[in-house]
Amino acid sequence: MIEFLKVSKSFGDTHVLKDFNAEFKDGQINFLTGDSGKGKSTVIRLILGLENPDKGIIKIEDSCKFSVVFQENRLFDKLSIEDNIGYITNNSLKINMIKALGLSEYLGKPVCSLSGGTKRRVSVMRALCADYDILVMDEPFTGLDENMKKQVMDAVMEYSAGKTVIIATHDKYAIEYMNKGNNIIEVK
Questions:
Q1: d(Cα 9, Cα 14) in Å, to the nearest integer?
Q2: Per-residue pLDDT at 93
Q3: How open is the CA angle 153-136-32, to the nearest 5 degrees?
Q4: Packing angle between helix 116-129 and helix 146-159, nearest 10 degrees?
Q5: pLDDT over 90 at 89, yes or no
Q6: Contact 4, 20 (CB under 8 A)
Q7: Bigger pLDDT: 89 or 165?
Q8: 76: Cα separation from own chain's centroid
Q9: 157 and 29 Cβ atoms separated by less than 8 Å
Q10: Rounded CA gap, 75 and 126, in Å?
């Protein structure tokens, strides 16, 4: 479990979080919600250790391995899907996952030749293929049309089952679609 206890974070004169409390539960999907600009990405950066809180306590097991989908895709644009996946895992590509994410027809093509939505699916697949304890996803369904969004959400639920997942999103549809008794934390 990841726990935030009275965590505050400011950037200059801008107070992003003030006395923020939250529990991210193990083995399920945790949704981090709130309007744009309210601090979802800051919470993600704090969880990952990319930022430090100004005050408060964040409890995370030291041995946790994270896999991440950032707001930006952060792919190797000149490499293929296969090579992008190969950089984070020695495992062979999972054919079922490729099909589930609708990526079969793009194998062998450089990522720079793919649409934004297709790149997003590659980012999600790369994160799902990594060896992780906690999967952290910041707005993972951005740029996907409704049908593809459902397909990707189904794949995330299937391939992360039993793992701890944190999804930062303001997409109410995604929360409703994926919420099967999962934890919802609002940043205000």
A1: 9
A2: 62
A3: 80
A4: 10
A5: no
A6: yes
A7: 165
A8: 18
A9: yes
A10: 9
